[in-house]
Amino acid sequence: MLEKSILLLLLQLSVLGITLGGNVLIWPVDGSHWLNIKIIIDELINKQHNVTVLVSSGAFYIKPISNSYLTYERYKVPFEGEKMLEVIGNFILAWMKNKPTPSTIWRFYQEIGPPIKDFNALNREMCDGVLKNQKLMKKLKKSKFEVLVSDPVFPCGDIIALKLGIPFIYSLKYYPASTVEKHCGKIPYPPSYVPAVLSELTDQMSFTDRIRNFISYHLQDYMFDTLWKSWDAYYSEALGRPTTLCETMGKAEIWLLRTYWDFEFPRPYLPNFEFVGGLHCKPAKPLPKEIEEFVQSSGEHGIVVFSLGSMVKNLTEEKANLIASGLAQIPQKVLWRYQGKKPATLAANTRIYDWIPQNDLLGHPKTKAFITHGGTNGIYEGIYHGVPMVGVPMFADQHDNIAHMKAKGAAVEVNMHTMTSAELRDALKTVIYEPSYKENAMRLSSIHHDQPVKPLDRAVFWIEFVMRHKGAKHLRPAAHNLTWFQYHSLDVIGFLLACMATVIFLVTKCCLFSCRKFGKTGKKKKRE
Amino acid sequence: MLEKSILLLLLQLSVLGITLGGNVLIWPVDGSHWLNIKIIIDELINKQHNVTVLVSSGAFYIKPISNSYLTYERYKVPFEGEKMLEVIGNFILAWMKNKPTPSTIWRFYQEIGPPIKDFNALNREMCDGVLKNQKLMKKLKKSKFEVLVSDPVFPCGDIIALKLGIPFIYSLKYYPASTVEKHCGKIPYPPSYVPAVLSELTDQMSFTDRIRNFISYHLQDYMFDTLWKSWDAYYSEALGRPTTLCETMGKAEIWLLRTYWDFEFPRPYLPNFEFVGGLHCKPAKPLPKEIEEFVQSSGEHGIVVFSLGSMVKNLTEEKANLIASGLAQIPQKVLWRYQGKKPATLAANTRIYDWIPQNDLLGHPKTKAFITHGGTNGIYEGIYHGVPMVGVPMFADQHDNIAHMKAKGAAVEVNMHTMTSAELRDALKTVIYEPSYKENAMRLSSIHHDQPVKPLDRAVFWIEFVMRHKGAKHLRPAAHNLTWFQYHSLDVIGFLLACMATVIFLVTKCCLFSCRKFGKTGKKKKRE
């Protein structure tokens, strides 16, 4: 009887287009990136797929604990986790010192170049760690994976997939300079209304903004080419034929982008791009007792949630004191995630925690505002729960993210380097007491919640689609078969211009010839 | 108890983002277009919305039968249904005489111009019939509609919506020349790999094809401008401010396009475009007894379904005989929808019907092939049920549709004007006996069925979304605020070129000046 029920269930599932028990291989990126792909992995496991994650011996954040559905395949690399952390530290420092504006982007990439080169070197060692480990590659081949899901910010997942002869899918927020989405993914990015990443521009640009955006695109393309060019030789060697990083990336079946139109400005895209921003968001759970009591003690004023993310452990004493005294000037209770020394100016309304249940706090009805560094995950939790934000961006896409939230009327920005206590206080008062901020945050929240299919379900749907159909070739634009001058129709325009020039030349020649002949006849006639 | 259950249900529905009991206004187009929007109307009624359809007194196909959820609002126009049928007849005749290829598109539009102008004249009388009927407009305003769904192939729905102060949505397959989607909707159409409508090209183009495509785009844009230009003045007058047809169309909240990637070649689009092709398709129902018996009598050979659509009632006697004798040469049984005189050559394997249950026949397991004129609805029923096709296109988008199916390996084309009996027979044998055709048709079918949300549900979701949120402004690209030269960054490029020229000029001048000065000093020195 039970067997019959199981068989019936399996039949129903297959009619509903549900894939059971597939084998998925993951090429992750360590650190906060892991959190995003982990959500997808958990959902794949929920749907009874067997997931194998490739983890290097130098991983510092991913904790390899296998279970019946999840296998961590550990491969050896010649560096330790500390080395990666050191490079990440240098990267953040270089970024914080050199904010990339369109006018400083050149210097910015000069400064950020060395840590990126270090990343590339470690990344290549990771890639070697898998590709040159014949025993591992043999084992992977035997495991009959149906798809590889890769975070492409660290290249290599795509080569592994091609070597195993399986389709691959990307999961990313954006690639530096969007060059990859543009040139390798073939999405058109009109610089007249699509702001370049890291430009902090919005879709409403003045003439000057559009000049800055135009320059920003081209400079970033150039920088990308310079800094990532070295991968072309690696890819060619690994795949045993002349190729480029870009050409290989263009073979991705689906690009799962971790944004959506609640955050992003509307822009063109292609059918093999799926916007799954906020896939990690979920309803708030009840808070731990002590925290709930503190939250409830805020009365009608409510609370402020404050976190600068997992990468910033502590601040200078001066900065911490300045922040604490700003927070002391508001009537709300503040829950501050901070691992540094307790600031002397800390008031009774503020409590410091090593860790806070951020999502549960943001979803609490007493929450009035969120002070955030502007990481995508935090921003999306803010959007999900409709909480207005005070942004204190520091590096990477944080300035851009806050610029988006400002443009959508749901955030105020405070400059980390120059802010005063009063500025922080005023920013908080603005987002808490000017109703438009809450209204806009709620509007974004309602856009986020009102989708035909939830982001995580869409992400998993397309992974399963690729498993069921061995790819998604019907979504791949033919633009991938064209060279850049063919893509822009430059050969056609050149040919048509040449034709026109020839016609004009011939017509002119004929006219001149006729005129001369007619002139001569005329003269002759005159003479006669 | 019952009341409590209903309240609970309503609460659950609202949590699930379901809108109950909204008021929807429809601006339809008569004829086969009505069938498509009718599917959406039926689903809206299913979801308990009140739907009002604006029907002119000159409608020849729409049957106004109101019920509790559906109201037909009839308005007076100074023409009869026969007049519209006559113009449609002229349009089809002109089209069948002048097939639009890139080399003949100029002449084609010259010939098709007069019937299009006649359409425009009738269309304007329909528009006047609503806008200048103050009693009707007052009644519509009182009805508090939340959204207007318009088939934009006959303009005016958008003006009515703007006059009523409500958002509007388009439902269409494509607009002539795609000019509207491109210039008014702001979708990029790279001519290097996106074939122009009516070009019969695919996404795999040779250099010559790309030249033809490039020219086709620009000629069609020009023709559109010429033939639809007169609407600009009408729109300006109706809205009481200088505007254009294109500017007004650009205000659509959502564009529901009746194609999908099973049919379409992958190309860029924007977030306010939703591809809902095949929304009318549904599983096959059992056949009427007589037809089922005839189908079953086909044995292992199976059947062929044959229809040239609702617009072609009869053929010349010669053509009908030629077709019938072609059909006589295959072992399958044929069900032919045909209202003309019974051909003399009709064999026992072929039966003629005034009407056939086309969808139910295509979904029958005995069906081996579908002879179709290539209308979008029929093509989609073929895709839905995975039936390979023999295309006999005649006018409108039919050649294009068949070209798509040919490119995807699911159809063979036969020329209506030049075909012989043997050609029809051979085409049928090819799609029936060469396995690749069935395989490709099944592949398209599986792509069609394997979507996260069914096309009809997505269409209705976005209509309800616009009702819930009073629009979908978060999906509207900022490109709408730019002029064409701003959109293409021509002002920015011009400015940067001017800057470069100035710098080069100044540097050259400085060099020349220094050289001259240095030269003189040199000479002076020499003299000294």
UniProtKB/TrEMBL annotation, chains A, B:
Pfam families: UDPGT. Its EC number is 2.4.1.17. The chain crosses the membrane at residues 492-515. It catalyses: glucuronate acceptor + UDP-alpha-D-glucuronate = acceptor beta-D-glucuronoside + UDP + H(+). Residues 1-21 form the signal peptide. The keyword NAD does not apply. Belongs to the UDP-glycosyltransferase family. This is UDP-glucuronosyltransferase. It comes from Pipistrellus nathusii.
